[in-house]
């Protein structure tokens, strides 16, 4: 293997809207209902794929006017959804970087408008040779063209690359374009799988 490609959210960065909405709801069931029926993952992914935050927010407010304030907080208070680095994975990234044996990249579903906040907050994001951000490319995982953007831009041979993601859907799509994959569940499990692949000793 010559190249390691990381997903960011859920692998290196702990991002969860509940960190914010637990402050805004007193009833957990109501919060879960709001997150699953109003500010849904599908809605959020459209911003990840390039729709502007202003447009996404306006569409949702028009659909659920009774929740205007809660909807506006999703991006208005977005930094409060960042729980910090997933340190065990950052330690692995550090080892990979220090070994000097691998090209390191990131492939992430992330809004172009909020990604600069993460870049400022997490120093390790500057260790990658390249980061392909869905919001900038106007495409996202699991669409094949998004993976091909990374492969062609950085001349990555998929047969010599490992892709790490916490979303099984994205893993299957990566396998379809020829990448070796690790379905991330924990830093410990990732380390074990990278040892098995002889990426880590």
From TrEMBL:
<protein>
    <submittedName>
        <fullName>HAD family phosphatase</fullName>
    </submittedName>
</protein>
<dbReference type="InterPro" id="IPR036412">
    <property type="entry name" value="HAD-like_sf"/>
</dbReference>
<dbReference type="InterPro" id="IPR006439">
    <property type="entry name" value="HAD-SF_hydro_IA"/>
</dbReference>
<dbReference type="Pfam" id="PF00702">
    <property type="entry name" value="Hydrolase"/>
</dbReference>
<dbReference type="InterPro" id="IPR023214">
    <property type="entry name" value="HAD_sf"/>
</dbReference>
